[in-house]
Amino acid sequence: MSKIKKKSYRGRARVEFLACKPEIDVMLDKGYSIRMAYDVLKEKGKISVGYLQFLRYVTGKTASKVSVKINNPEPNSAAVPPPRLRSRLPRRSNQAAANI
Fold first, then answer.
1. Torsion 33-37-39-40 (CA) sign
2. How many domains does the chain contain in total?
3. Is residue 85 part of a domain?
4. 1 belongs to a structural domain
5. Closest Cα partner for 38 from 53, 26, 54, 23?
6. Of 6 and 27, which is predicted with more confidence?
7. Residue 7 has pLDDT above 60, yes or no
8. Cβ–Cβ < 8 Å for 51, 38
9. Residue 33 lies in a domain
10. Among 16, 24, 30, 87, which residue's CB has the most CB atoms within a 10 Å radius?
11. What dihedral angle (degrees, nearest 10) is formed by the CA atoms of 16, 42, 10, 57?
C-alpha cells in the first residue's frame, strides 16, 4: 500500500500555537526558554510548526499584528507641517548676491 500523505492546511500552525498558548505561557512563567518550550511541545506532537515561526508567534512578530489603516481620517487642525529640509548647497553671502 502507498502512504497516504496528510494534507496540510494554510494557517494550521497558528491554530496549533493558539491551542497551546496557555501551556506555553505557563512554561515561560516557570522559567523555560522559548526553545525548551518548543522542544517539549514538538516532542508531544502538539505542534508541527518550525522553530523560527514558533519564535515569531511567541514574540508577536507576525503579520497579524499589522495595524489597520483608516481610509478616511478626520482632518487634524492642529497638525504640524513637516520641517523644511535645508538645501545642501552653501548659502551665498549678501555681497556675493549683490555682485551678480
1. positive
2. 1
3. no
4. no
5. 54
6. 27
7. yes
8. yes
9. yes
10. 24
11. 70
CA nearest neighbour of 23 among 7, 8, 40, 6: 40
Cell, residue 5: 500523505
Strands (E), 1-100: none
Span 15-74, pLDDT tens digits: 999 999 999 999 999 999 999 999 999 999 999 999 999 999 999 876 554 444 556 556
CA–chain centroid gap for 38, Å, is 19
pTM: predicted TM-score of the whole model, two decimal places: 0.54
| Count helices and strands in the chain by DSSP H and E runs | 4, 0
Residues 3-10: contacts with CB under 8 Å, at least 24 apart? none
